[in-house]
Amino acid sequence: MTAPETNGASPATREVTNRDLIGRIAKGLWNGARRRQSELRYGLAREVWFSTKRFAVGDEVRNLDIAELPAVRDAVVTAYPDDRNRAVLAALCQGLGAKTFFEIGTNRGRTALSVARSNPDLQVYTLDLPSPEAGGETALDLTEADKRLFTDWRRGEAFEGTPEAERITQLLGDSASFDFSEYDGKMDVVFIDGSHSYPYVTNDTRVAERMLTPNGTIVWDDYPGFPGVLQCVLESARRVDAPVFHILGTRMAVYSRAGLELDLAGEDERGRVRVA
Length: 276
Prior knowledge:
By secondary structure, the chain is α/β, with parallel strands linked by helices. Helices cover 35% and strands 18% of the residues.
């Protein structure tokens, strides 16, 4: 005996809809919330909160899909697969034709290596504290998340001994007291990924603005996850002379004096435009 067809189609040939999955998802959500509370708190709830903050800022920081950025979506880059941000940042440097790149916050050096390897003509400068002990003597306050980085200190290990190391200059110092004057007006891209505290991100943003070339670009990491980064980016968006964008699917917010070419096909505005 064969099973009766449903709505004129057998279960094997009928399309499955979200409505068909409601019961299963609801049951799984209930069971998961009881059994995997850590994952619920630090995974699902965290992502929902991040997305809520991103959505709630309104038009102050516009959200862009990578598909809307031709220079990024069509780029071919080399980057670590554990963090999509590095690949997108490397692609952004390509699209902007950057020749100089300054990173605040080296950590293991994976970002510096990714942008250098994907941009053979790029000169990279990266700044970090001189030692983990220096983390207890910073000029401005750190977040607790920042302090945890000092327990696994492997600054710059990714690019040590690589061909790209010849184009990567490791600088040592606290960004709140470091003398950046040598780099003023010379950086095509400045990547802010040091401390996530509001005082530090604000300081690093002011420093980045001074270092930019006339067509330079600032990229903030860890937006909108950290409150200090979110607040600083919002304040910058109200103050700077060009729009600030968040690239969806990444933690990065971008301000560019050069302007970004956008492909808005599929929206009310049609075709490519340059937003500056």
